[in-house]
Amino acid sequence: MATDHVDESEYVDEEEVFIDDGEVLQEVEDGEDHPMDEDDEADDVAELPSHDDADVTDTSEQHFEGHDGSVFVVACHPTEPLAVSGGEDDLGYIWDITDGEVIVKLTGHSDSVSSAAFSADGQMVATGGMDGKVRVWRRVGTENFRTWEFLTELQGPDEVIWLRWHPRGNVLLAGSNDSMVWLWQLPSGNTMQVFAGHTGPVQCGEFTPDGKRVVTACADGSLIMWDPRSPTAVFKLSPQDARFDTGGITSLAVNPSSTLAVVGGHDGSVRIINLTKGEIVGALGGHAEGDSVESIQFVNLSGNDSGPGVVVTGGTDGKACIWDLSTMRQRATLQHQDAVTTLLTVPAPKSHLIISGSADRTLRTWDGRTGTLLKEHSGHHGPVLGASLGLRGEVVVSAGDDGLCLVYTTEKEEQ
C-alpha cells in the first residue's frame, strides 16, 4: 500500500512525559472538588429553570431546517462560513451559516448519515453512514467555496461510527461497528491501512495533534495506538490491564503535545494514559457510577500547550467536570439538567471558554478558569446531539434531535 503521502520527517523522537513514571495512581472521588487558584470564583453553579416547549426562547442567529428527521452531526468549515450536517434522512448538506442557504445536497447514502467532516484545508468534505459508505466531495474552482463535486465513495466499513481527517494532510480515518479502523489517502481513495485489533465497535478515535500516531478505543474496553505506516499496533491496553476496566470506552481526547490521552468509560470512569510509555498513569472519579462519559476536551487555560494541561469531561449524569492534570484535582463542575452530549473548547485568544451541549436542549458557554456560566444558548425543542465551532470560534453551530441546526454567537453577553 502506498503511504508516501505521510511525511516521515514529521515522525520525531517521543516528547517529554509530564506525569512522572513513578507517580502513584490517584482516584478522585465523586464530588471532591478542590479550590481554584487565588482569584477564581467558586465553582458552584445555580440551578437554571427547566425548559418546557412552550417556554423555549430562541437565542440563535440563524436556523437550518433542511433535514427531515434528527440531525446527528454538524461540522464547520475551517475558514469559510459553511457547515456540513448529516441526519437520519440519509442526507448530508453543506450550507451557509450566515443565511441558512443550501450550498449542496450530499446524496448517495442508504441509511442515516452519522458522521461528517471537512478536511484540514477545507478543500474536501466526507460523510459516513450507518450503511457503511464513506462518500467524499471536493471543492470546484479557486474563486469561492460555493461549488462542490462528488469525488469518490470509499468502501470497507460495516457501519461508520466516526470520521477524522489528518490534522495537516488529505488522509481520512474511520471507525467501524465491525471492530475495524480504516485509513484512506485522498483524492485517490486508495486504502492505506486497515487496523485490526479491537473486538467490538470502535467507539472513538483520533489522530494525535502532531499527526504522527492514531489512537482508537472500543466498546470492548481496549485502547490501541497505531503508527499510520504500519498495521501493527504500537501498544494495546485491554480491560484486563490494571485499572482499565471501564465497561467499554465511549470517549477519547489527546493533549496538544500528543503525550497523554484521556478516555471515558460507559461506567463513568476516566483514565489517563501516557502515550509514550503505553501505561495508565491516573484515574479521575468525578462522574456518577454507571453514567457514561460522552465527551472529553482539553482546555488551554494558560495560553500555551506546555504541561499536562486541563481537561473537561462530560457525562450522562449531566455534569461536565474540569480537571487539572498537573495536580489530578477537580477544578469545577459545570451542571446541565440532562446528559452532556458534546463539549467544545474555543481557540485562542478565547481558549478559556468551554461550550457544552446537552439533552436538556441547551448549549452553555462557561469560563473554564472559574466554572462560571457566561451564556445559555436555547432554541432547540429536542436534545442537542452535536455541535461545532465556526469562524475561528466566533460562532457555535448545533445539531438537534428536533431536525434543526442552529447558529449561535459565542461572545459573552453584556453585563
Task: Describe the protein's architecture and organization.
With 415 residues, the protein is an all-beta fold. It is 0% helix and 44% strand. The chain contains no helices and 33 strands. The chain has a five-stranded mixed β-sheet, with no helix packed on it. A four-stranded antiparallel β-sheet has the order 2-33-32-31, with no helix packed on it. It has a four-stranded antiparallel β-sheet with strand order 3-4-5-6, with no helix packed on it. The protein is globular.
Strand content of the residues, in percent? 35-45%
Strand order of the largest sheet: 1-22-21-20-19
Distance between the termini: 58 Å
Number of helices, counting only DSSP H or I runs of 4 residues or more:
0
Overall mean pLDDT: 86
Oligomer: single chain
Radius of gyration over all CA atoms, rounded: 20 Å
**Estimated helix fraction:** under 10%
Poorly predicted tracts of residues: 1-52
Largest sheet: 5 strands, mixed
Overall number of strands: 33
Shape: globular
List the helices and strands and how they pair.
Layout: E1 27-28, E2 62-64, E3 71-76, E4 82-87, E5 92-96, E6 102-106, E7 113-118, E8 124-129, E9 134-139, E10 148-154, E11 160-165, E12 171-176, E13 180-185, E14 190-196, E15 204-207, E16 214-217, E17 223-226, E18 233-237, E19 249-254, E20 260-265, E21 270-274, E22 279-284, E23 293-299, E24 310-315, E25 319-324, E26 329-335, E27 340-345, E28 353-358, E29 363-367, E30 372-377, E31 384-390, E32 395-400, E33 405-409
Parallel strand pairs: 1-22
Antiparallel strand pairs: 2-33, 3-4, 4-5, 5-6, 7-8, 8-9, 9-10, 11-12, 12-13, 13-14, 15-16, 16-17, 17-18, 19-20, 20-21, 21-22, 23-24, 24-25, 25-26, 27-28, 28-29, 29-30, 31-32, 32-33
InterPro entries: Quinoprotein_ADH-like_sf, WD40/YVTN_repeat-like_dom_sf, WD40_PAC1, WD40_rpt, WD_repeat_multifunction
Protein name: Ribosome biogenesis protein Sqt1
Region (Disordered): 22-43
